[in-house]
Amino acid sequence: MTRYGFIGTGSMGSMLIRKFIGSGLVAPSAISASSKSGISARALAGKTGITAAPSNRSVAETADVLFLCVKPLQVRDVLDEVRDVLKPGALLVSIAACVSLDNLHDWTGDTVHCIRIIPSVTAEESAGISLVAWGHRVTPEDKKILLGLLNAIGTAVETDELNFDPYTDLTSCGPALIVAMMREFAGAAVRTGTIRPELAEYLVKETMIGTARILAGEQMTFDDVIGRVATKGGSTEEGVKVLQARLPEVMDEVLSALDAKRRVVSDKVAGGE
Q1: Of the four, 49, 57, 111, 264, which is 20 to 30 A from 31 by CA?
Q2: Structure pTM?
Q3: Which CATH class name applies to 174-270?
Q4: pLDDT exceeds cutoff 70 at 273
């Protein structure tokens, strides 16, 4: 039986565990997990039936597939801690942004098979994208295992690591950015004085859900939906014109801010902070 280990049971680590179990592909008995204080791992074990391990090393030494679900600046310390107990040929799956495959290879030795993934919170609903970049030691069997898991909780998109940052902006960061825009949309309606905040949020949520279903179910493009709603000469068209005039600069600034933050974190990772 393939043994799965998780170091880190925060928001993303615990979600992956719950979804993998829910998919039926991984039994709770095949998973052990650790967390910094041990509290969250024990709580998750109580809910899911996995094993809460007493240390990161005890997780790593039994894992055939080890998910590293810690913050970028914690990755090197964790790998320094467990490096000597990693199984030869073990599959190491890191979800950390700004930590490259070269970093992972340097910090784990010559026998570990390294993979980077960037999952999305949308996997909670078995939807959305998980980005995957393969290290040079990864085998076809490794790929089969991981793609099977990720495609059971959404859609895995394989890509070169060079594409990770711009793709991450759209996938992993995307839900927060989209919802932040919709919050401001609802807020504008509230400022007219004609609608309560909770009702505005409800109406926008339901509209987002319906729009996503149209895009997915009818295979429509963004322009298709805009054209269907914003009929020529109508009031919606005037609103779209405002967005088309002002949003490009805003979105350029958003992506620049994301990139600048990543550069800061990447420099800290490279500097061993």
Answers
A1: 111
A2: 0.93
A3: mainly alpha
A4: no
